[in-house]
Amino acid sequence: MEKIVNSKLLYSLFLSISLLHPVVAKAVDTSTDSPGQYVDDATVTVRVKAAFAQDQSIMGREISVRTDMGVVDLTGNVNTQLESDHATQLATKIKSVKSVHNNLMVTTH
């Protein structure tokens, strides 16, 4: 009797794993970023944020920085179009930045 229970348990386990395998396989990261690229992008993001933190006209603004394959995306809020343009200029000067997508919104308080 114990052998039958063990067989059913093993069969159930095997069936569960085989049914879940496609789901688990789909969840694997399919991005083409290598570990080195990921580190480079993180470094670029940190450098852009540091440049913003040191700049009098940009510091304290709600600007989010995201980098992917050397392309910097800026999102958030600034007070003037001049601040928005200046943020783009600062980010463009950072080593390894290929381009900057400025999605900053000009808001007045």
Give the number of helices.
3
Terminal CA distance:
77 Å
Biggest β-sheet strands, sense, barrel: 3 strands, mixed
> Would you count the extended β strands for me?
3
CATH architecture annotation name of the largest domain: 2-Layer Sandwich
Percentage beta strand? 15-25%
Secondary-structure element pattern, one letter each: HHEEHE
Number of domains: 2
CATH topology of the largest domain: Histidine-containing Protein, Chain: A
SSE class: alpha+beta
Architecture overview:
The structure is a single chain. The protein has 109 residues and is an alpha+beta fold. The chain has 2 domains: 1-29; 35-106, Histidine-containing Protein, Chain: A (2-Layer Sandwich), CATH 3.30.1340. The chain contains 3 helices and 3 strands, in the order ααββαβ. Strands 1-2-3 form a 3-stranded mixed sheet. α3 links the parallel β2 and β3 (99-106). The longest helix is centred in the first third of the chain and has 25 residues, at 2-26.
Task: Provide keyphrases for this structure.
single chain, 109 residues, alpha+beta, three-stranded mixed beta sheet, 21% strand
Produce a short descriptive summary:
The chain has 109 residues and is an alpha+beta fold. It has three helices and three strands.
